[in-house]
Amino acid sequence: MSSEDGKAPLARHCHGRASLGWLAVAAHVDDLIASRKVELRTALATRPLGDGPRRRADTAQDGAGIADFVASDFKNLATQLGV
Q: Cβ distance 46 to 70 under 8 Å?
């Protein structure tokens, strides 16, 4: 079953209970781009400190249009997912 945008729906029902489909969560936009190529839903978990001084952290703005969800932390992501 797919949604109007061609991706599998994130929420599915199993034995009368909602369950999550496949979701790739990453801190790097490159990983999300690869995940979208295999039709996974995506979430960017931003990390303000990034990967240290040699690499700039990916931001919510970097994830716009790429990630289905952008979260400041996992609690925020869970809230967005309704779990």
A: yes
CB 28 within 8 A of CB 70: no
CA distances from 6 to 31, 37, 38 (A): 20, 12, 12
3-state secondary structure of 14: strand
pLDDT in tens, the chain (83 residues): 445 555 555 555 444 555 557 889 998 889 999 998 988 889 999 887 766 777 778 778 878 888 999 998 899 999 998 88
Give, for 81, the enclosing helix (H) or strand (E).
Answer: helix 74-81
C-alpha closest to that of 66 among 37, 77, 14, 10 = 37
